[in-house]
């Protein structure tokens, strides 16, 4: 290998190592991580903190006089109560809005059809960005 090739290879390696050092290290190590399905969310924002509560609605079945099943009551269970700094709340809201806009523009997500109740199958596209 020529001297020039060795220097180039060394520079490329150093550049790669610098880039690697600049990247933030994010490590996910939570053995207790839980996944939830939710029906909706509500929350609030004040000058001290942001708050998002995720809930799950579950119909409570009862039988009518003919023996048929009916839902007369819906129980709403708060699954997660997430509290965060104001900036985190703002960044999360921006990320969610930007993601929806990006997916709408790409044609992957059709919000108006979803609002109308049209069942849209999810294809092989990268839906979660």
Can you put this structure into words, describing what you see?
The chain contains three helices and three strands; from the N terminus they run H-E-E-E-H-H. The protein has a three-stranded antiparallel beta sheet with strand order 1-2-3. Residues about 120-129 have low confidence and may be disordered. It is α+β, with helices and mostly antiparallel strands.
Secondary-structure element order, N to C: HEEEHH
* Main sheet record: 3 strands, antiparallel
Overall geometry comes to elongated
Helix-and-strand structural type: alpha+beta
Low-confidence segments, given as residue ranges, are 122-129
Q: Determine the mean pLDDT.
A: 83
Helix % is 25-40%
Strands ordered across the widest β-sheet:
1-2-3
Question: How many β strands by DSSP?
Answer: 3
Strand content is 25-35%
The total count of helices amounts to: 3
- Structural domains: how many: 2
Q: End-to-end span in angstroms?
A: 43 Å
Question: TL;DR?
Answer:
Helices cover 36% and strands 28% of the residues.
Spell out the key features of this protein.
disordered C terminus, three-stranded antiparallel sheet, 129 residues, elongated, 2 domains, alpha+beta, single chain
Helices and strands, with pairings:
Elements: H1 3-22, E1 40-45, E2 50-63, E3 69-84, H2 86-106, H3 111-115
Antiparallel strand pairs: 1-2, 2-3
């Amino acid at each position: 290998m020529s001297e020039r090739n060795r220097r180039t290879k060394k520079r490329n390696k150093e550049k790669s190592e610098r880039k690697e050092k600049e990247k933030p290290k994010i490590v996910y190590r939570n053995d207790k991580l839980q996944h939830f399905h939710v029906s909706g969310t509500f929350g609030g924002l004040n000058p001290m903190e942001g708050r998002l509560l995720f809930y799950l609605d579950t119909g409570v079945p009862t039988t009518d006089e003919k023996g048929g099943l009916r839902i007369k009551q819906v129980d709403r269970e708060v699954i997660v109560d997430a509290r965060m700094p104001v900036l985190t709340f703002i960044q999360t809201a921006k990320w969610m809005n930007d993601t929806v806009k990006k997916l709408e523009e790409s044609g992957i997500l059709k919000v108006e059809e979803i609002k109308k109740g049209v069942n849209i199958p999810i294809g092989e596209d990268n839906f979660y960005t």
